[in-house]
Amino acid sequence: MSTAHRVIKNTGFLYGKMAITMFISLYTTRLVLNALGASDFGIFNVVGGAIAMLGFLHAAMSSATQRFMSFYEGKGDKEKQKYIFNVSSVLHFGIAIGLVLVLLVAGYFFFNGILNIPADRMFAAKVIYGSLILSTAFTVMSVPYEAVLNAHENMLYYSIVGIIESLLKLAVALIIVYHAGDKLVLYGILMAVIPFITRTIMQVYCHNKYVECVIAPKKYFEKSLMKEMTSFAGWSFLGTTISMITNYGQGIVLNMFFGTIVNAAQGIANQINGQLMVFSSSMLKALNPAIVKKEGSGERQNMLNMAITGGKFSFALLAFFAVPVIIEMPFILRLWLKNVPEYTIIFCRLLLVKTIIEQMVITLSTSISATGQIKQYQITISLMAIIPLVTTYGFFYLGFQPWVLYVVYIIHVSIRSFVVTVFFANQLCALNVKDFLLNVISKEAIILVFAALLPVILHYKMEIGFYRALLIVMAYMVSFSLLFYFLNLTAKEKGIIHTLVQRVIKVKS
User: How confident is the model at residue 57, as a pLDDT?
Assistant: First the structure.
């Protein structure tokens, strides 16, 4: 099976998982909210939020492990992968222990002045906190096994584990509905058991399926490899930390100048953006290991070609759904929300524009990471990430409107994407900058403008309502699809689509 077909197949598995888990998650949340009540449900979320703030450390180490495992999977070096697996297991065990100790100390401060929890529910909140600490530890220790599944591009089993996890959460919700005692305490304990079960499932499968999954740290351990992996994770950690600070900082700055109503508008914008991002992020999860494996096998040009092709489809998957939403945002928000907070419409529109720009070069970042030389890139983008937050504060101090925040971030992400990321992709991966900007980025911009032309005219000429929205969606999706296919795809990329369509037709028949 070719790499392209494997990526398409894996993307299909992830979409299937997404559809199932999203439905289960919505129903589970409804059951839990009704069973616990708003107060206890709020306690669980506020305590969980305190722990989630440290999730960025786990994300940085996870990306490092997956990069090294995929790189040497591409090389076909199983012996080296045994070293990576054991070093990663030792590192994540150490991180898990460290997180437990940090969170235990932090718990003293959380429950003595930081968290506002009713006195009669303090014991339950502490049980929840302890349970979530164990849950976090198990989640961290499962990273080496997730990395192995990603390196082998085994998205079918990864999706199955995700569905099992969602079903277990549904089972927990059903149990607490009929539990007569303290529902919150039982909910916290049972939720802590789930990561242990999913880790065990992955562990048993990986040890039986993959030869590199051998736990023998005395035999398979290299100080130099640990130093290399820790260094890579450290620079990833820097970028992730700065990103987290700036994301939280946006809400704080908005709150300082405009109050909680504007924060509500920002929250709605983030929610819509997150839902639309799912389509492209699922494909990228299937694609990223394949890009790194190409670099590991020494196929630099093929790696770049795959990243560019993947970037085109990632952009298309987001733009296909996002642009009609941008145009019809007033109608969508009116339909969804009874009372639309001020600035919500413009926040949603500008945030989606920013995200579309990011998607145009998102796979180039994966290519840069695949080389392992991320120090200068991470330092540059981390320093740049602070600038828009400071700039926005200055604008607000001078009396500018809150939507200026998103304009500043659009300018920032444009410079970061088309200047910084493209520059480092050229330096580290030998990207042909002129060809990329002329034949990929400029074409995608032209496609967006012309595909949106008729829908925008319809938006201003017709009365707001369902028929206008339907007509705009149909007009845009047809024009975007045709323009993207004929203007932006190479003959090889069109061949991938033809094969996919033929397979779908064959399955249906």
Answer: 58
Using the CB atoms, write b or e for 138-151: b if 16+ within 10 Å: bbbbbbbbbbbbbb
157 neighbors 164 (Cβ within 8 angstroms) = no
Compute the distance between CA of residue 96 and CA of residue 133 in angstroms, rounded to an integer: 9
CA–CA separation, 298 and 358 (whole Å): 27
DSSP assignment of 9-57, as one string? HHHHHHHHHHHHHHHHHHHHHHHHHHHHHHHHHHHHHHHHHHHHTTHHH
Categorise residue 463: left if φ over 0, alpha if ψ from -120 to 50, beta otherwise: beta
- Short-list 397, 298, 407, CA closest to 347: 407
Tens of pLDDT along 6-18? 777 777 787 788 7
Q: pLDDT confidence of 223, banded at 50, 70, 90? A: confident
User: Exposed, middle or buried: residue 54 (CB in 10 Å: 0-12, 13-18, 19+)?
Assistant: middle
Q: What is the mean pLDDT of residues 193-207?
A: 89
Category of 99 on φ-ψ map: left (φ > 0), alpha (ψ -120 to 50) or beta = alpha
Q: How far apart are CA 468 and CA 334, in angstroms?
A: 14
**Residue pLDDT, tens place only, 242-274:** 777 777 678 778 888 887 778 878 878 887 888
Q: Global pTM?
A: 0.79
pLDDT (tens digit per residue) in 100-140: 888 888 788 777 766 667 777 788 888 888 888 888 888 88
Neighbour tally for 97: CB within 10 Å: 13
Measured torsion, CA atoms of residues 98, 99, 104, 107, in degrees rounded to the nearest 10: 150
Distances from the Cα of 392 to the Cαs of 143, 351, 381, 383, 418, in angstroms? 37, 15, 18, 16, 21
Which tokens in the block code for residue 100? Answer: 């437990």
User: Which residue from 68, 70, 59 is spatially nearest to 88, judged by alpha carbons?
Assistant: 68
Residue 411 neighbours by CB distance under 10 Å: 14
**90, exposed or middle or buried, with CB in 10 Å at 0-12, 13-18, 19+?**
middle
Alpha-carbon separation of residue 466 from 299, 470, 479 (angstroms): 50, 6, 20
